[in-house]
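OP here, attaching both records as promised.
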Amino acid sequence: MRYLWSIPAAVVAWFVAGFAPTYLKGLPAGSTTFVGTRVDLLVLGGFTGGVLAGLIVGRVRFAMPLVLVVAGGAWWLSGYGLSDKGLLALLLVASVVGAFLGALGIRSTVLAAFALSVPVAWYALRPAGELQDWRWLWQLNGLLVAIGLTIVLYVACWRRGWRSAYYWLPLGAFYLASFAIVEGLQAVTAAKGKSTDEIANAGTDAFFDAFEPVLREYWPWLTLAVLLAIPMVALKVRALPPPPPPPVVDDGRTNDAVLSDDLDWIDREEPKRRLLPARR
C-alpha cells in the first residue's frame, strides 16, 4: 500500500524539485518543453529530482527504474529527437545516480546529506541571477547559503544524532564544493559550441574561482549556520525515544522456558527403583 502513494509522489517530485525552477522566467508562447536542453539544467535537475524521488520511494530496485521511465518519458513528451542522444544520456545518468543516493539515504542520512548538498547549493544561487541590482542581495544570498548548510548538517544527524557530527567538517567542505560544481556546469553550458579545450578551461576556471567569493563574502553566514544547527540537533536528539535495553543473556528463567515439552523429563525426579527378591 505504501507504493500506491510513494510512486506517484516521486514522479511529481522528480519534475517539481528538478525542473520547476527553470520555469520561473516563464516558457515561450506555445512551448511544450518539459525539460531544457542546457547541460547544467539536465545534470542538476535530473540529479535533484532523482534524489528526492529516491528518498520518497526508499528502495533502490524501485527508484532507479522509476526515474529512468519518468526521465525518458519527459524527454519524449518534450518533442526531442534521437539526435540528442548525448543530452538524453546525461539526463538519465543524473537521474539514476540521484535516485541511487536518495534511496540509500534512507538508511544512512549522512549519505543523504551529501547528496542534497548539490541541489541545495543550486537553489541558494538562483536569486543572485534574478536580483542582480537588489539592495539586500548580500543578505538574501547569505541567508539562503546559511539555511542550506543548516539543512544538510541537520539531515546528517537525523538518524544517529551526535555520532554523525564527525561528518560535519567534510560535509561542510563538500557543501562549499557544490557551489563550485554548479558554477562549473553553468560555465560549460555558456561555452557550448566552442572547442573542447575552451569548454574544459572555462569549466575548470569557474570551478576553482567559485571558492574564494563564497568564503570571503559569506563566512559569517556559514558560521551562523553551524551555530544554528547545534541546538536543532540537540532538540532532535532529546525528541528521539530512548534506545532499547541490551538483551540479557541469563534472566533467571528455568530450562522449561527454552526446552520443548518432550524434553521435560530431564527436570523430573527419577522414581525410586524396587529390587525384586532373588529366587532360590
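Record two, same layout:
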Amino acid sequence: MPVTAKDILYEDNHLIAINKRAGDIVQVDETGDEPLDEKVKKYIVATYDKPGGAFLGVVHRLDRPVSGVILFAKTSKSLERMNAIFKNREVKKTYWAVVRNKPVNPSGTLVHYLVKNPKTNVVTPHLKEVAGSQRAELSYRLIGELGGYYLIEVDPLTGRSHQIRVQLSTLGCPIVGDNKYGYPRGSRKGSICLHARRLQFLHPVKKEPVNIFAKLPLDGFWERFEGF
C-alpha cells in the first residue's frame, strides 16, 4: 500500500515520521518488496511536485512485523544530526507489547548481551558478555490487562536488532504472534503485537522538543488497548 497523508505523524522541512504498518520493510531487502523509504519518497515527490526526486534518509529501523513511529530525514543535514542524536542516546523510545503470560515482576530492567546469527536472522541472549555480543538494556512495566492478555510498556535504552522481542521472551513473556521468539503460533497477517508508540527528542535544527505519538493499528485486536 502507498503512503498517504493519513500515515503521516509529523512533518516539517527537515523530518517526516510515519505510522508504519506491520509487514512493511523499511529498506530494500532480498524479498524485492517495495520498501517504506521508497514509498515515502514517492509521497514527497507527488505532494510537493518534485519531478527530480527527493532526498530521504533512514534514521532508524523497525522490524518488518512491528508497527508504529518511524522517522526519516528529508535533508542530509538533518540526517547527520539525527544520527548523532540516536548514537548519543538523546532520544526516548517507548514501545507497547502485548503478551499472553503475566510477568512475575510488574516492572524491571533487563540487561543482556545479544548475538545475532546472520544466516537464520535469530538473536540469542546471554547474561554475560560473549564474543561478538552487543549489550542490550531496557526497562519495562506492566500497564494493563484485557481478556487474558497483558500490555507491557517498554523503554529501550539501546537499539539492538530484535532486542525487545528477545528480551521479553527471556521473562517467559514472548510477544503475541512472535513465533520466532517463543510464542506458540505466528500471525496470519505477518505481524506481531509490538508497536513503536512514542518518539521524543530535541529537533536537530529548531532545537525544540518533538513528541511523536502513533495510534495502535486497527486490526480487530490491537485497538482494544488504545485506552490504556
